[in-house]
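INTERNAL AUDIT FORM
Audit reference: QA-55
Scope: verify that the stored structure record matches its stored sequence.
Auditor: D.O.
Record contents follow.
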Amino acid sequence: MDWKDALGSLLNDPTLPPGDDVPDAGSSEEKPATNAGRLRLFKERKGRGGKTVIIVEGFSCNEEELSELAAWLKKKLGVGGSARNGEILVQGDCADKVRALLSEKGFRF
């Protein structure tokens, strides 16, 4: 059972009292699950042969969404990188560009 099925069964539960704390199932506005919290940017060189990488962590999305976001970010910047364990690794010293692009997408730092 994924989270959508669990939420649907929760919304249809007659034992729950009606209230504003339960999200509307018929809401047409979708909010991305990826910008729920604040992200953290780190610049790292240790253990990478002197090469600089930017690590962005704090995502609250599944690995597939994270991989898609990392692919978009790497394509926009023209650099390499990876997405795993809830963080995106971008090769190169481009922290300002990474922050600007993710801010445009609605992420907070």
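Auditor finding: record pair retrieved intact. The longest helix spans residues 63-77.
Action required: none
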